[in-house]
Amino acid sequence: MADKKIGEYYAPPPKMGKWEGFRKFIWNSETSQCLGRTGSSWAKILLFYIIFYAALTGFFAAVFAVFYQTLEADKPKWMLDNGLIGSNPGLGFRPMPPEANVESTLVWYESSKKENYMYWVEETERFLRYHTYDDLPKKNQVNCSFEHPPPEGKVCGVEVSSFAPCTLDNNFGYHVARPCIFLKLNKIYNWEPQIYDLANLPKDMPEGLKQHIKEKQSLRPNETAVVWVSCEGENPADVENIKSRDYYPRMGFPSFYFPFKNIEGYIPPIVAVQFTVETGVLINIECKAWARNIKHDRSDRRGSVHFELMVD
């Protein structure tokens, strides 16, 4: 409220109570002010912020439009060694322990108690159903072989029945103390394996795998284009406590599943490893994928995976 002039001086505004002062701040009928501003003042402020935020929105929209012009929807801008993922795939295993033990890699159960081992059966079944899209239409999928790789724009399917006896009907072996562990190679766009041939097998490759490759080479030489897989006990005691291990449908990932091109319907290959182990003993196991362009680094989880297995 404007002060009233008396002679050459201004008189202070009349004292008002809190409620009356607040009410006058909300709306001053003498000066037509709302919250201390006239209508024209509010209109100028509103116009300023409309223009300001419109310009800000336009600026960021233009920045994102230019940025997205450099990207493609179906493949990454930076691939292989130029990207953060790199060109050395990791190896993963399923089933995983409960989320409460998210950092654990221990598969531990009692084969004589159904309520105990059913968690692992259900987790494995959930993984296969999700991983193979078993309940969805198999888009772009064809049956592949070493002689018939997928044509352009198509991908190879994965049949759950090929993992037999590691199937749901058999409880994935958990009820008979022969658990099935499923291995998968992480997807890297446009990565292709450089397959080992018989003449350049690495010295640290397990002897059992070397012998298997030699047998394949002599009996079915056209079926050796494989990213080989081996699972071994980490320590001498672990090696002794693993009685046997069987690989289904084969001892590795066929090369016709690569490269990953983000084609709809693509399913990474899976290997089921069925272990027969000494019961009541904790066994440390390391599985490795073998190709000339796969390096093994346990600390970075490259090319290999570690887990513990204990069957009571």
Fold and architecture overview:
The chain is of the alpha+beta class. It is 25% helix and 22% strand. It is built from 5 helices and 15 strands. The protein has a 5-stranded mixed β-sheet. Strands 5-9-13-11 form a 4-stranded antiparallel β-sheet. Strands 1-2 form a two-stranded antiparallel sheet. A hairpin with a 4-residue loop joins β3 (27-28) and β4. The longest helix is centred in the first third of the chain and has 31 residues, at 39-69. The chain is elongated, with a radius of gyration of 34 Å. The mean pLDDT is 85.
Which helices and strands, and how do they pair?
Elements: E1 5-6, E2 9-10, H1 18-26, E3 27-28, E4 33-34, H2 39-69, E5 91-94, E6 106-109, H3 114-132, E7 141-142, E8 155-156, E9 180-185, H4 207-219, E10 226-233, H5 236-241, E11 242-248, E12 252-254, E13 270-277, E14 283-290, E15 304-311
Parallel strand pairs: 6-15, 7-8
Antiparallel strand pairs: 1-2, 3-4, 5-9, 9-13, 10-12, 10-14, 11-13, 14-15
Organism: Drosophila arizonae
Protein name: Sodium/potassium-transporting ATPase subunit beta-2 isoform X1
Family: Belongs to the X(+)/potassium ATPases subunit beta family.
Helix amount: 25-40%
Oligomer classification: single chain
The largest sheet has its strands arranged as 6-15-14-10-12
Q: Per DSSP, what share of the residues sits in E-state strands of 2 or more residues?
A: 15-25%
How big is the Rg?
A: 34 Å
Alpha plus pi helix count: 5
Distance between the termini: 88 Å
**Major beta sheet summary:** 5 strands, mixed
Subcellular location: Membrane
Keywords: Membrane, Signal-anchor, Transmembrane, Transmembrane helix
Organism: Drosophila arizonae (Fruit fly)
Membrane topology: Single-pass type II membrane protein
